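Morning. Coffee machine broken again, so started the prediction first thing and wrote up yesterday's gels while waiting. Chain of 176 residues, entered below exactly as on the submission form.
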Amino acid sequence: MAVKMWRRATGLVLRAGFGFALLSLGAQPAHAQSGDRSSVASDIVIAQGETVHNVACVACSVYVHGTVNGNIAVVMGNVEVTGTVNQKVAIVLGDLKLQQGGTIQGDVAQVGGDTELDGGTIEGRKARVPMGPIIFAMMMPLLFLALFIWFIVWIVRRSTGPRYPYPPPPPPPGVR
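Came back before lunch.
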């Protein structure tokens, strides 16, 4: 009975969470301006001659051929600029490519990924954290967990296993 109730409650929570996630993907925040663009898992393209305000993207890429008057924030995606970005650009786990004629007038903050300046310019400051420290920081908890498990196994083997890994040596001659 308790297992059946647990499964029922778990299923209800999962369905409610999934429904909320689907509804929130299409919703825009109340403070969003009419020229803002946001997307999840679908690339954003600002065409040449087009002007938008802020751009936010998760698990997708942003291609700027026109003008972005606000900021660009991308998580797990790339930013390619051939147009103009008038404010800041923030990229987490993605690449930045500035092509010929591409300009970022504000600051650029990048965590992981590479930066290619193929004739483009960054007029503001640039801060970049390479991928190595990020991987190291993400792997540290796993390293500690592995060491903890190894220590527990070592203690259990030491306390329950044989004292000698080989059979004891035979007794000296004449002793039974």
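Confidence is low (pLDDT under 50) at residues 5-32. Going to sketch it on the whiteboard this afternoon.
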